[in-house]
Amino acid sequence: MDKITGLIDAPFTPFYENGEVNYGPIGKYASMLKKNGLKGVFINGSSGEGYMLTEDERMKLAEAWMAAAPEGFKVIVHVGSCCVKSSKMLAEHAEKIGAWGIGAMAPPFPKIGRIEELVKYIEEIAVGAPRLPFYYYHIPAFNGAYLPMVELLEAVDGRVPNFAGIKYTYESIYEYNQCRLYKNGKYDMLHGQDETILSSLAMGGARGGIGGTTNYNGRELVGIIEAWQAGDIETAREKQNFAQDVINVICHYRGNIVAGKRIMKLIGLDLGKNRTPFRNMTQDEEDAMKRELEAIHFFERCNKF
Amino acid sequence: MDKITGLIDAPFTPFYENGEVNYGPIGKYASMLKKNGLKGVFINGSSGEGYMLTEDERMKLAEAWMAAAPEGFKVIVHVGSCCVKSSKMLAEHAEKIGAWGIGAMAPPFPKIGRIEELVKYIEEIAVGAPRLPFYYYHIPAFNGAYLPMVELLEAVDGRVPNFAGIKYTYESIYEYNQCRLYKNGKYDMLHGQDETILSSLAMGGARGGIGGTTNYNGRELVGIIEAWQAGDIETAREKQNFAQDVINVICHYRGNIVAGKRIMKLIGLDLGKNRTPFRNMTQDEEDAMKRELEAIHFFERCNKF
Amino acid sequence: MDKITGLIDAPFTPFYENGEVNYGPIGKYASMLKKNGLKGVFINGSSGEGYMLTEDERMKLAEAWMAAAPEGFKVIVHVGSCCVKSSKMLAEHAEKIGAWGIGAMAPPFPKIGRIEELVKYIEEIAVGAPRLPFYYYHIPAFNGAYLPMVELLEAVDGRVPNFAGIKYTYESIYEYNQCRLYKNGKYDMLHGQDETILSSLAMGGARGGIGGTTNYNGRELVGIIEAWQAGDIETAREKQNFAQDVINVICHYRGNIVAGKRIMKLIGLDLGKNRTPFRNMTQDEEDAMKRELEAIHFFERCNKF
Amino acid sequence: MDKITGLIDAPFTPFYENGEVNYGPIGKYASMLKKNGLKGVFINGSSGEGYMLTEDERMKLAEAWMAAAPEGFKVIVHVGSCCVKSSKMLAEHAEKIGAWGIGAMAPPFPKIGRIEELVKYIEEIAVGAPRLPFYYYHIPAFNGAYLPMVELLEAVDGRVPNFAGIKYTYESIYEYNQCRLYKNGKYDMLHGQDETILSSLAMGGARGGIGGTTNYNGRELVGIIEAWQAGDIETAREKQNFAQDVINVICHYRGNIVAGKRIMKLIGLDLGKNRTPFRNMTQDEEDAMKRELEAIHFFERCNKF
Q1: pLDDT tens track for B153-174
Q2: Mean pLDDT of C45-67
Q3: Which phi and psi angles does B254 have, rounded to 5°?
Q4: Residue A137: how many CB atoms within 10 A of its CB?
Q5: Nearest-CB residue to C199 (from B173, B181, B247)
Q6: What are the backbone dihedrals phi and psi of residue B53, each rounded to the nearest 5 degrees, phi first?
């Protein structure tokens, strides 16, 4: 299978004030991402509050992103849920509407304790979209599935034909590299932590990744890869350090799902609130965050429309 | 609000061999539970694989249990999910079909880290069934919500009018007792660990609970309460020790959801498999478990039809 | 081996203002404990900051307690440490000075991950005091040794001749009971959580325990056992609830090691500070704690000199 | 303060068959390390089983390393323990015998939960050796001290005059980089994971580190730094991948403390066993490990005498 090069964005899901999904801004959203160098979107994932959406909302969002996606812009649909039957149905839907690929994280409940359980879960979902590449989304901090990823590759190899790779959102660049080395790079290892892109490039020869802060800081994150490929380590470091400055700010306000989504409003694309049980930022918090972002000159470097 | 006395059962969900829900056995199931002394059911919870079911399946199961419930047999519907919008809808449905009450555990994702988040989650669901008592299902081993329950009672008191109490499935009999003492027993504290019912009776003066092994060992578990109330501590202990013997066995085969469900087949009510990612027992495991159960004379003391 | 009946106290270690151990108060301390119904002491354990003491200090404390112990008052010396060689030496010393018994918790580093490791650790220590009963101190919250205790009993049985039982400081009254049932009560199961003594009496038929809040609340805790044995469940419950009231207070001030030690000053036996890294209470905190204790009429029911 | 450049080794502690410390091999050990490019040693740390040694053994080992250290070879003494009084005494001893520096990890018991507790612990130790640089050894997997390291730097800055930096043995290269950026590199950030040296060089501009597998694979690890500095990223990656191959092998046999120590025997420096509760490798395990190492041509690239 072809590997992804460049950065895919994990978009937020827009909501109306009354808490219902707002499909309106997606066209503008997709264009903006494309313009700032992103290669596609990984929708209905953690940044998109996918687990907090109904089945119906997830399908409508997938359709909206398909309708909005510019030429050559990949739409990957996260279909993971606690109910494997529902996930399989979402996979079938994704294939039917022409999505580029699908993905799923391990369910947070029941907690997956063994590779065998995870493979069976993946298998039953992936078979729903046999012509699409399937990406396992490894984010154990969210679901407790602290399992060895090389063993996962060994287990799916030869068993899940459309298994394409891993969105790797975990701190072990050691394991990331070991996965990349598996059968000389048989599987696509998408780095999934914007704060350490440079690390994946140096250690692992990464070519692609999926970002969450790419929603508003995509130009600089794309710039890290470009600088590295041009042999300009100093520029790559400067941009990586800037990306960490931005992430430092959102960490003061409950992270990307809450604070990152609010930054979208500050750069001109109001996406509304988060669903319960996320605690939405107050106006005071928004004001304070804005000042912190100004102090690092974020608004001069952020994504543009 | 009235408090529950006696034991409520958390039933398993029957599946066909092809993995679809089998609503057929529910009538027989309800009668059997009633006959063995259970006072009602807490459906679509962890024993019932509620999180592994689609919204539609959950509603149909609730309807099937309502149709099957004998006179005076309480049907409490677990409506918790990662999507609060879906949970509220399930609450509305439960009230519409005449369920006795509703309940919800904390969502496993996003992980609840603060009482404030949990209260908001509860509030948005409970409002969907304003005339039904709402029970919070505290089972932090399943969702990571290790929060102080006395603080939860303080937070819901005066804010969530139909909050009735807690199904307490956690080891701290200290905290259980503190909750029971809150405002002289304002809230209903349903003990939720069959291995320590006697403990809740002695320490906390418990009057009711919700069991998982009551599905097949309900007579003995009901007997613990009866013996205690009759002042017969020796009989209560013997039955509690027997209940632990049974639980020791299921712990050898991945616990109640997997092994307990299989015991139902052994006592005459085949409920089929578990959904992925649960690992179903092999025939060899079933045979071995049967021998272990015979060794403790389980089949002489188990629930009868 | 004989089993312990009644409650053993885990005493605090007195310090001078300059941080050195103060052996002075031990005589008065021992007399007071005896007078209030305690049957002995478990010294140099967690309440005694044993791990925060030098080898030399631990031996001198053992000698001081031996010198102070009234007739028939048991002195059990906790000899556990990260260095098994040091622990064995402390065991030899305990036997040499005539201590009644020894004990050790699992070392916090390296973290014990297997029963086999724990048994070897116990074995190498216990052999240093072959004529004394050895108690394993199970307190996994302090050292991460979340191991199955029935398996420990199976592993030491026939291998560690002087293994006497377990000081069980963990919430699973289920496991506690299973250990008690092992070979019809072969090993001595000392309950180790003052907040749930009644639970161990009802469920497990416990006869003894080791307390930390017995230092200042021993009369009431002894009273729980007496009331239970007299068949007076209401009095037992009232005293247990009072014990929980007291524990609620110390939990507001960093628990027994810090707050409990300060209570000793308030009842007339100033034992000084805790060693770093414990954070000692401020005067304001002490004042606030005193008010909380007065509100529950603690000073009318506490230990007397 | 000057920063460390190059790699410092964390040596194992030699034991006789009877379990006593064997000071004999230290001279040969030090020469070998120097010859293979190491710049010094960090003794009595986790690789050296420092916590499993008596105070007396720790001091004698420090003296033996001082006597053996070649010209310009740094001896840093790990003095951390659960007893801050003992640690301070070890710090005084280290300064007295002319050690180059000292270090301490957070105590595993009591578990440190706040920066304030950690700073006080560090302060009381560091004052024992006021003329030596103090390194905090951050290895939370061993002691549960998952604390934010930038906050530690802020807290010690201006308060602990001889605080020099952090030996950072944790996976967050993001946090590592943030620490390095603190006040333009005020503190020395020693990378402490041999599997990701390249990552620290690329992301953080690291100049030095402390290794555990440097004991036997030091030439290749030093080679990563040299290749990076020469701009030869391909060689750096090849050597880093080889280092991961070696680490993959030791992970099959309980890690560096157990398996790494046994490798020393295989390359010609038998250091004996580990202390209980470590489980020593069997002969079969040793043979199997040797075959795995041969398969990756380890013995052609390992450290030489």
Answers
A1: 999 999 999 999 999 999 999 9
A2: 98
A3: 70, 25
A4: 24
A5: B173
A6: -105, 155
pTM of the predicted protein model = 0.97
Of A121, A123, A125, the closest CA to residue A111 belongs to A121
User: D105 by DSSP, 3-state: which?
Assistant: strand
Contact A225, A205 (CB under 8 A): no
Find the closest chain A residue to D233 by CA distance. A202
Q: How many beta carbons lie within 10 A of that of residue B5, not counting itself?
A: 12
On chain A, the residues whose CB falls within 8 A of the CB of B118 are 277
Nearest to D199 among A193, A199, A247 (CB): A199
Task: Give, for D280, the enclosing helix (H) or strand (E).
Answer: none
CA separation for the pair A110, B276 (Å, rounded): 9
Residues 6+ apart with CB under 8 A from D30: D41, D65, D68, D69, D70, D73
List the structure tokens of C262.
């300060």
Burial of C82 (C-beta count, 10 Å sphere; 0-12/13-18/19+): buried
Q: Residue A19 and residue B85: Cβ atoms within 8 Å?
A: yes
Distance from CA of B224 to the nearest CA of C (A): 11
CA angle A28, A31, A33 (to 5 degrees): 110
pLDDT tens column, D30-65: 999 999 999 999 999 999 999 999 999 999 999 999
D–B contact: 3+ Cβ pairs < 8 A: no
CB contact under 8 A, D110 and C144: no
Contact A109 B84 (CB under 8 A): no
The 10 Å CB-count burial string (b at 16+, else e) for C242-258 is bbbbbbebbeebbbbbb
Interface pTM (ipTM) of the complex?
Answer: 0.97
- The Cα–Cα gap between C297 and C300 comes to 6
SS3 content of chain C, % helix, strand, coil (to 5): 50, 15, 40
Q: Is residue D221 a contact partner of residue D192, using CB atoms and an 8 Å limit? A: no
Would you say the C-alpha torsion A54, A55, A58, A59 has a positive or negative sign?
Answer: negative
* Cβ separation C233–B193 shorter than 8 A: no
Compare CB distances from A178 to D198, D203, D244 and report the shortest one's residue.
D244
Q: What are the residues of chain B with a beta carbon less than 8 Å away from any beta carbon of chain A? A: 19, 51-55, 81-86, 107-112, 114, 116-118, 120-121, 124, 142-144, 257, 275-279
